[in-house]
């Protein structure tokens, strides 16, 4: 009887060995799986916050302005982190905006390479979202937005320097002596003399343009005078327009009267009052609300005597 009991006990010991082996194998597999998940999870958490988007850099008009165009993917500006555009005059162009599909933002390259870089909140991680070749602006910026903001609220004069920022103030804005603005301008009275403006112009009063290139449209509540070799993309006045020895590449519109002498308007002209053309060329039609006086000029390819203006209400 004792011998039988010993045999049974020995059988139990031999049966325990496979059970222990299987248990150890399961423990090892579980441990390896946990370590793998931790490593993969850690890598995912590290790179996950960076937005994934398709971006493009395109030229804007004939001037040095470019636009960053969002073509699909994550909305920029929604996630934590900071976006910096390297190689442009306004590197914080994406800092305070949300850019989603088909949206765009203007930038002014100052380097031959422009890169859009995302930085994590803690600054320990960064990703280059896109990189492009670009044509730098003709003048390196002397001042930026901080300089403009320190002078906002009153009159502002840009004399012979290049400012890379939108310029906005309730007072008078003067740009002269080779002064250049890489951005839009918004002010009261605006005076340009021998200047370069790479942006649009909005004035609550009048605009006086002399020997200046404006790579954008002018929209003024008051009179607009464009003189002496100036070139403007387009102009709209809430009062009168006087064009003399200058070129408007788009349309020229006034709520009251237009007078052009030795001027060129490549598109339509439209005024609710009188239109007076002297030795000028209008590429489009003339929409006139009152009297039409035309001499030594052409409108839509016709000489004055052969052209009949259209009614202003049709514009």
Q: Which percent range describes the beta-strand content?
A: 35-45%
* Structure summary, number of beta strands: 32
The dominant shape is elongated
How would you state the average pLDDT, rounded? 86
Number of helices: 2
Largest sheet: 17 strands, mixed
Number of domains: 3
Radius of gyration: 34 Å
Uncertain regions spanning at least 5 consecutive residues? 1-10, 37-47
Describe it for me?
With about 325 residues, this protein is an alpha/beta fold. The protein folds into three domains: about 1-45; about 55-135, Immunoglobulin-like; about 145-315, no CATH class. The chain is built from two helices and 32 strands. It has a 17-stranded mixed β-sheet that branches. A nine-stranded parallel β-sheet has the order 7-10-13-16-18-20-23-26-29, with no helix packed on it. β5 and β6 (about 125-135) form a beta hairpin. Mean pLDDT is about 85; it is low at about 1-10 and about 35-45.
Please provide a brief summary of the model:
Keywords: Cell projection, Cilium, Flagellum, Membrane, Transmembrane, Transmembrane helix. By secondary structure, this protein is of the alpha/beta class. It contains 2 helices and 32 strands.
Features:
16% helix, 2 helices, 40% strand, nine-stranded parallel sheet, alpha/beta, 32 strands
């Amino acid at each position: 009887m004792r011998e039988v009991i010993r045999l049974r006990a020995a059988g139990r010991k031999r049966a325990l060995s496979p059970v222990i082996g299987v248990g150890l194998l399961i423990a090892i597999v579980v441990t390896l799986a946990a370590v793998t998940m931790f490593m993969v999870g850690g890598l995912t958490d590290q790179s996950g916050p960076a937005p994934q988007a398709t971006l493009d850099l395109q030229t804007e008009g004939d001037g040095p302005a470019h636009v960053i165009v969002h073509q699909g993917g994550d909305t920029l500006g929604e996630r934590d982190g900071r976006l910096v555009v390297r190689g442009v005059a306004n590197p914080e162009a994406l800092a305070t905006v949300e850019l989603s599909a088909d949206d765009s933002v203007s930038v002014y390259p100052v380097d031959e390479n422009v890169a859009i870089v995302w930085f994590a909140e803690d600054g320990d991680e960064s990703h280059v979202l896109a990189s492009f070749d670009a044509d730098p602006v003709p003048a390196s910026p002397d001042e930026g937005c901080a300089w403009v903001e320190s002078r906002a609220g009153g009159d502002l004069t840009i004399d012979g320097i290049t400012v890379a920022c939108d310029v906005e103030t309730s007072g008078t804005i003067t740009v002269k002596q080779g002064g250049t603005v890489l951005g839009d301008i918004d002010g009261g009275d605006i005076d340009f003399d021998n200047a370069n403006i790479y942006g649009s112009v909005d004035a609550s009063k009048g605009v006086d343009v002399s020997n200046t290139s404006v790579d954008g449209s002018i929209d003024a509540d008051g009179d607009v005078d464009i003189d002496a070799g100036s070139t403007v993309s387009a102009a709209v006045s809430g009062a009168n327009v006087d064009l003399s020895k200058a070129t408007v590449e788009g349309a020229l519109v006034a709520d009251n009267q237009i007078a052009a002498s030795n001027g060129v308007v490549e598109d339509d002209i439209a005024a609710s009052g009188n239109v007076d053309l002297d030795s000028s060329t209008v590429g489009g039609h003339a929409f006139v609300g009152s009297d039409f006086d035309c001499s030594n000029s052409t409108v839509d390819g016709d000489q004055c005597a052969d052209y009949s203006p259209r009614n202003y209400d049709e514009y």
